[in-house]
Amino acid sequence: MTAVERLQSELGSIVSIDPLELAATRTDKSGWVAPGMPLALVRATSVPEVQAVLRIATEFRIPVVTRGTGTGLSGGACGTDGSIVLNVRGMNRILEIRPEDELAVVEPGVINQHLNDALAEHGLWFAPDPASKGFASVGGNIATNAGGLLCAKYGVTREAVLALTVVLADGRLLKTGRRTVKGVTGYDLTALLTGSEGTLGVIVEATVRARAITAGETVTLGAVFPDVALAAAASALITASRLCPAVMELIDSAALAMIAAYLGPDQTAGLPIDRGAFLLLQTDGPGALAEAEQAAAVLRAAGGEVRLADAAGGATADRLLAVRRAAHPALAAHGEVLIEDVCVPRSRMAEMFERIAEISARTGVPIPTVAHAGDGNLHPNFVIPADPGRPAGDPVVPEAIWEAAGELFRAALKLGGTLTGEHGVGVLKRRWLAEEVGDTSFDLQRQIKSVFDPLGILNPGTMFAPVS
What is the CA radius of gyration of the chain? Predict the structure, then answer.
């Protein structure tokens, strides 16, 4: 009996070998397409089903790629050749909400927004807020340690994860973490598994921290600067002034021009986005207005033209936020978008923008960039025009663009930064991983993987190149 026959025998109709369904698992939002074709797709809805898949995969030594909603941006959950794609999207129950302990217990397929809708009835919310929160899953957030617009003030996903239940490569069940506010028993396996990108185990349940909904008002302001370096320096001054806006987003002139064209004059009338670089801030809490006014003073002193929401010109909060939300669709209107993800200390953002501009000018590759300025996380974007004549199998991203991206990554490292702030290493950045972490750490991390996954069947090729 083959592995597929065993899967079908034990799991029945949740196993698919339909070529169209298998092909759909080979890519994610990064645009990367895995070569070859998976053996099977399993749509799990329970922990025993996940355990059965891992036991069979171990017996037959077949790779397993865990997948949720497919919104990743690093190629880390794409169905590779000869693999079993284990989709846990159907494990989407909110198992428990305990308002008195400010926590919730969820399955990995629960959508961020659905969790927040349920928590809101108790005056609570789940802080991790990737831009895809309307369709991204909590399990995917945990697997990549996802970020978002609110991280500088409310933290990344790791800070919201209290405990995990994980199926190991051989089908055993591992429980980590605790429900208590404090807990320092043993190694912190919960933190290790958060951000492990499916290489150490399959998350089947998570206990996550919920926060009280922030009391008070929300105040939004937008500021335009002559160039992005000045805007980045001004955002660093906000932090240096001990102000902590909930949102601080920065858009360079290249991206801003594309957004303005995409939205059109009807949606941009009265908004300060017709020139230069754009900085968006949002403050919250009881002192939101006072904090916004202090921030406005800092930005004006730094050379910005500032407009508070609902002031003259019709710059409402929703319209200002819509500028940032339109970034990706505006770029995507021009072709396939490679959304990159580096992070530098906030005080070095202006330098990083200067390096991006220098690399773009020298290589001739346009690099429109947006940034979560509150935490120094930049998203340089590469727009690859559609090419109907591209031969089948040719990469969507030309090597010239990867060379420019590699220069960006090394520039971020030289500024004391990191290759990825929130998207993960996946397949697309594994060639640069050792450059950041160093040989000793790289070797130790590979050894850790071998402890959890001695046969190397869990998401092989993600983070580490397969061992030949």
Answer: 23
